[in-house]
Amino acid sequence: MTTPEPQVRFYDLSGPEPWSPACWCTRYALNYKGIPYTVTKLSYPDIRPTCERLFADMTGLHATVPIIEILGDKLQALNDSTPIARLLNEKFPASEGYRDLKGLDVMDDYQRKSVPCRKAILSWILADVHDCALDPHDGSKEYFKRTREERFKVPLSEVTEKVGGGEEAVLQQIREGWEPLRQRMMQEDGTGDPTYQDFFDASNVKWIEAASPEKGKKLMELYGDDTFVKLMKKVEKYT
Ligand SMILES: N[C@@H](CCC(=O)N[C@@H](CS)C(=O)NCC(=O)O)C(=O)O
Prior knowledge:
Layout lengths: L7 E6 L7 H13 L3 E6 L1 H11 L12 E4 L5 E4 L1 H11 L15 H7 L1 H19 L6 H13 L6 H4 L4 H11 L1 H8 L9 H16 L1 H8 L6 H9 L4
Parallel strand pairs: 1-2
Antiparallel strand pairs: 1-3, 3-4
Helix pairs in contact: 1-3, 1-10, 5-8, 5-10, 9-12, 10-11, 10-12
Glutathione binds next to helix 2.
């Protein structure tokens, strides 16, 4: 059997295992669509120079990962996970044998409404991301600590308390913020075909689990039901 020629170069963040939620969205999208790709790991300090190399005009563009480069005849680079998913559907259509990512039409609204929940997650696990998820040797840790402490104005270890109001308060914000997921999963048994909305939610679960397996377990108990078990079962094949 021959290995299929890569069609996409996917730039992910470095670290002992994949952890960035936005990059997980792109990984799920590529896997679901069945697009052959290669992964290039970037340190935090390498993100901006890579964007500057790939994008002729940086006006209005945030220097972030994920970034994809579509290779060959379709050559094109793009960052930002949801626009990436839309571009992948356009460039790798069902008519050419690729699976179509579903549910992208609701994403702008869903993503906007998920901001408070994502902020709560961030204040819960920020220090764990620094301690456990980042590559310890490539400058990512120093970059992350400096930029996040500038943003939050407290040491990383105090963000949950001083920014989030303590773990209980943060968990309550996550519980309320993720209610639409709980409602959705109540209609499901975890065996259906995942939508991009499912991949987006699962990416946040992956983020928490990679930062702290202990907090990942706490998350599973958040509603005292099988919301997260069903979600992760639904996306498992594309992990
Ligand atoms: N809306 C963007 C967010 C991407 C994002 O924030 N990526 C982070 C890593 S998870 C990043 O690249 N940060 C660069 C930095 O902090 O300098 C997306 O979904 O792609």
